[in-house]
From TrEMBL:
<protein>
    <submittedName>
        <fullName>Bifunctional nicotinamide mononucleotide adenylyltransferase/ADP-ribose pyrophosphatase</fullName>
    </submittedName>
</protein>
<dbReference type="GO" id="GO:0016779">
    <property type="term" value="F:nucleotidyltransferase activity"/>
</dbReference>
<dbReference type="InterPro" id="IPR000086">
    <property type="entry name" value="NUDIX_hydrolase_dom"/>
</dbReference>
<dbReference type="Pfam" id="PF01467">
    <property type="entry name" value="CTP_transf_like"/>
</dbReference>
<dbReference type="Pfam" id="PF00293">
    <property type="entry name" value="NUDIX"/>
</dbReference>
<dbReference type="InterPro" id="IPR015797">
    <property type="entry name" value="NUDIX_hydrolase-like_dom_sf"/>
</dbReference>
<keyword id="KW-0548">Nucleotidyltransferase</keyword>
<keyword id="KW-0808">Transferase</keyword>
<dbReference type="InterPro" id="IPR004821">
    <property type="entry name" value="Cyt_trans-like"/>
</dbReference>
<dbReference type="InterPro" id="IPR014729">
    <property type="entry name" value="Rossmann-like_a/b/a_fold"/>
</dbReference>
<feature type="domain" description="Nudix hydrolase">
    <location>
        <begin position="251"/>
        <end position="398"/>
    </location>
</feature>
Length: 405
């Protein structure tokens, strides 16, 4: 597992495995004004599509949706970054975000029908949940289109709603056949500021940035063990970030990771460090000053399997690739170079004593072994249990079976 080399004097143990390089203290964002919608045009499009992460939905999101519901008959909200493990950037499940959005629109008196009458198939408010595919943009586009298509049928009367706020909004230009309807709601409010206040425990600030229904959800979520984990992750990341503030330039880290597959199983470790404690991850570590990437990955695998040099990894190496999406890690700029090793055996080898458990197990059993072999089909079916982009890395190497996910 990658544990990042941080300056020791200023770090706690938790902070030692975490870093991000950017730290901006954004002042409390002003709440946007409700635009005067009295003279807004009546619905002129059959369908409107509004894509976002909504982590969490805030006042500006609400106003964009209220405005959109005045110009489209049916609003399809595409909730991105679905089915991923919770982290401080994406703390809520897609279903939780969907429930918050419906609740805030009902609370605002939007004409969408109740949860009973405004059903998923017939109401004015529909939802599509889409996973990220950081290394396969065409797959993401196809999944957005496919999800929208399921609601619009053969209609071509589809508009795309949104606001091109910065380069991260590039995807709004990727649907040229849907007329773009830019929102008139433009404010400096951002979900990043909401999350920063939320994980700092500043619920009073959060109250001013989100609709009451969302605030109620956030208050309840604050009582959960998941919030406690995320808040601890947030603190660890902040500590690590502070440790690098004096660096002359933001650091870029290189990690050597290994996907080891054998007889329908893959070797995974359960993270012991923050962020993402308890999530499943590929074995790997940061590159040391005197190591090659392959040498680093092989050393980790030999340690975990306990097979030492008896394991001929050079014969087992099938493929390698670099995973460098800028948003792949919250710890900062961490580029992964990953190797796929295939062990030609009828059963996966026993793991070294004290290193983990051997034998194929089912996910979700709560095992806390450091490393274990897990059925590939189970791993592919549970992206929400994997750290960072490791599910995508596995899928990339084993592309023949990724469609099971
Ligand atoms: P977001 O929640 O930040 O924003 C959603 C929409 O609201 C955007 O149109 C944004 O411009 C608008 N908005 C936000 N704040 C506003 C404000 N203050 N005033 C007015 N409008 C405001 O979501 P996002 O990050 O843009 O969501 C995109 C989603 O699509 C993410 O989940 C992302 O991961 C996903 N995505 C995935 C891929 C891929 O996997 N290949 C590619 C592109 C996008």
């Amino acid at each position: 597992m990658a544990s990042l080399p941080l300056p020791r004097p200023v770090l706690t143990r938790a902070g030692r495995s975490a870093l991000t390089m950017q730290h901006m203290t954004v002042p409390h964002a002003p709440v946007p004004q409700v635009p005067d919608l009295a003279d807004a045009p009546r619905p002129t499009r059959a369908f409107g599509v509004y894509i976002g992460r909504f982590e969490p939905p805030h006042q500006a999101h609400l106003l964009v949706m209220l405005e959109a519901l005045r110009s489209v008959q049916t609003l399809i909200v595409v909730i991105g970054s679905a089915r991923a493990a919770r982290n401080t950037k994406n703390p809520f499940t897609a279903q939780e975000r969907q429930d918050m959005i419906r609740a805030m629109l009902e609370e605002a008196g939007a004409d969408i029908g109740s949860a009973d009458t405004g059903s998923a198939e017939t109401g004015r408010l529909r939802f599509v949940q889409v996973r990220d595919h950081l290394y396969d943009e065409s797959r993401w586009l196809a999944e957005v289109r496919g999800g929208v298509q399921a609601h619009v049928g053969g209609s071509r009367d589809v508009a795309l709603v949104g606001h091109i706020k910065d380069e991260s909004s590039y995807y709004l230009r990727s649907f040229p056949d849907w007329e773009f309807l830019p929102t008139h709601v433009v404010s400096p409010l951002s979900a990043t500021d909401v999350r920063r206040a939320y994980f700092a425990g500043r619920l009073g600030d959060v109250r001013g940035m989100v609709p009451p229904a969302v605030h109620i959800f956030l208050e309840r979520f604050r009582q959960t063990p998941e919030y406690a984990e995320l808040r601890a992750d947030s603190e660890a990341l902040s500590e690590a970030r502070a440790a690098w503030e004096a660096a002359p330039q933001p650091p870029t880290f290189l990690s050597a990771d290994a996907l080891v597959s054998c007889a329908g199983h893959v070797l995974l470790v359960r993270r012991a460090d923050r962020p993402g404690r308890g999530l499943l991850a590929l074995p790997g570590d940061l590159l040391g000053p005197k190591e090659t990437l392959l040498g680093r990955a092989a050393r980790v695998v030999r340690q975990l399997t306990g097979l030492g040099t008896a394991l001929d990894l050079s014969a087992a190496l099938r493929a390698e690739a670099t995973f460098d999406h800028p948003d792949r890690s919250q710890r900062g700029r961490v580029v992964s170079h990953a190797f796929h090793f295939v062990l030609d055996r009828e059963t996966p080898p026993e793991l070294a004593p004290g290193r983990g458990e051997s034998g194929g197990g089912e996910l979700g059993e709560g095992e806390l072994g450091e490393a274990r072999w897990l059925a590939l089909s189970e791993v592919l079916a549970h992206p929400e249990l994997l750290f960072e982009d490791h599910h995508e890395i596995i899928g990339r190497f084993l592309s023949g079976v990724t469609d099971q996910s």
